[in-house]
Structure formats: C-alpha cells, structure tokens
Design brief:
The chain is α/β, with parallel strands linked by helices. 43% of the residues lie in helices and 17% in strands.
C-alpha cells in the first residue's frame, strides 16, 4: 500500500516509519511536511496514494484546509484520508467528518498504544476494496 503521510513533526515521521518497520509491513511511506507539499505530490495522478494520513496542526495549510481542498477535487476526493492528530477538539472532529474524512485517530501518548492504533488503521485499509483510478 502506498501511504502519503502529511506531518510536519520529524519525530512523528520517524515514529511512523519505526512502527511500519516494527510491524513488518510492506507499505511505502511518502512524506509531505505540509499541505502545499502534499498537493504537489498529488499532481502526479499515476502515483496517487492508497491512503493519506493527515495531521491537523501544520504550517501554511492546516489539516482542515487541506482536507477541504482534497474533497472538492474530483480527481482526489476518492482517496481515503485519516486524520492522525493530538487534537481532541470536538469541533475539529465534527468539521473533519462534515468535510468527508475517512477516520479520525487520536495519537496516544504511549508508543505501544500508538503501534496498536496504526496497525488497526493500516490493516483495515489494506483489506478494504479500494477503487483504482
């Protein structure tokens, strides 16, 4: 599975890579440090990700702004997008689902809990029948 991780925190990027390695998953992680970078990556239609993992709190374009752009674009709106954030703000959660997010995951403090959540999310999206464009 090709995953686009949109995350500005280097430690969180390293944590995701470490988790993928620990779980011995054969997924490819592409990184974007902000929404602008992610949109540039998504310009290449031949390399659309199977899943986007999106942080909410980012510079330049917030996660909610990026999600809004993504879901208004006919070429991109089909890509499953899961929020991966520390924000337990109810308004953020409601806004993301209103826009059309596929999931909203709170990053746990304990690494073992993080691994379990990531394993569950990636397992689900790995077996889900995704439409290929």
């Amino acid at each position: 599975m090709n995953i686009l991780l949109i995350e500005d925190n280097l430690i969180e990027i390293m944590k995701m890579k470490r988790t993928i390695s620990l779980l011995k998953l054969d997924h490819t992680i592409h990184e974007a440090k902000n929404g602008e970078e992610a949109l540039k990556i998504l310009e290449d239609k031949s390399k659309f990700p199977d899943l986007i993992l999106l942080d909410l709190n980012m510079p330049k374009i917030s996660g909610i702004e990026f999600l809004t752009i993504l879901k208004k674009d006919d070429d991109l709106k089909h890509i499953p997008t899961v929020i991966l954030t520390t924000s337990d703000n109810q308004k953020d959660l409601e806004k993301c689902f209103e826009i059309g997010v596929s999931g909203y995951i709170l990053k746990p403090l304990k690494y073992d809990d993080y691994v379990k959540k990531i394993e569950s999310v990636l397992s689900y999206w790995s077996i889900n029948e995704l439409k290929k464009y």
